[in-house]
Here is the input.
Amino acid sequence: MTNQNRGLELADLSQVTDAEREAFGSFYTNLLGHKHRGLDYLLEHDPETLKRYRRYSDVATPENYEANRKLFVFGFLPFYALIGYDVGVRYLLRTRQKLGMTKEQIFEGIAIAFLVMGPAGMETVARALETYEWLEPEEPAQFPDGWAADSDAFRSGLDFEDLDLSDSEEQLLRDWYLRTLGEIPPYVSFLISHRPRMIKAYRSRFENCARILPKQFVPTTLLHYNVSRGFAHGIRENLLLARAFGIDKEIILTTMGSASLNGTDLFTLVEQTASDVLLDWGDA
Here is the structure.
């Protein structure tokens, strides 16, 4: 029985052939624009460990970038940006362009990531794209069935021309969270009480970061990041938002599966903080 993945024969852990090496290198060169230095090092010195990793990765994110070419998340973008991995930022964005995303869509993905990665992360993005040659996709990107742009889904009704949060706007904001998530995240209650201008300024960013991308990219990208960094409240909030936006549960599990390439113990936090959300996913 064979088990081909990115040119590697995963059913045979005992060896790696020259044909496998060539096919593996070609896959990454075509998708990323270059070979993957870290994975190539394992291919040369410890191919069994690499093949076992590819087995895990393919189970966690089935046929990602291969048979499954529908885009649904910006993945490690904010995490890589914050740790300064500009090579990773560059290839993540290039892969999405190779699969049909326009420059405008990429910049909305960066805007989503900028909600959590801050100026330090943006400096990594700037380094990553300094000499990047933007692609002109021949075919538009494909997204999961039912995904579409819907900027109104984020609208709380706040007037962002006025920096102050009025009493009526406070109620509008609380209503949005209760209507959309079913609960109000603790940081929202804190900021309403202590720094109302701050929550209003944040909502101005949040409500305007995705206009041409499908709205579902916001919770998937922020969920991936919060699983990667191990932040319980962020995991719960974005699972609730993903459920509200009708994202298929398998896509959510694959999103978290991708983040688990940093360690499967991250699922402990998911279980502790949001098991009720996943169990009550319904037919979304």
User: Anything to note?
Assistant: The chain has a mean pLDDT of 95. The chain is about 60% helix and 0% strand. The first strand starts at residue 4 and ends at 5.
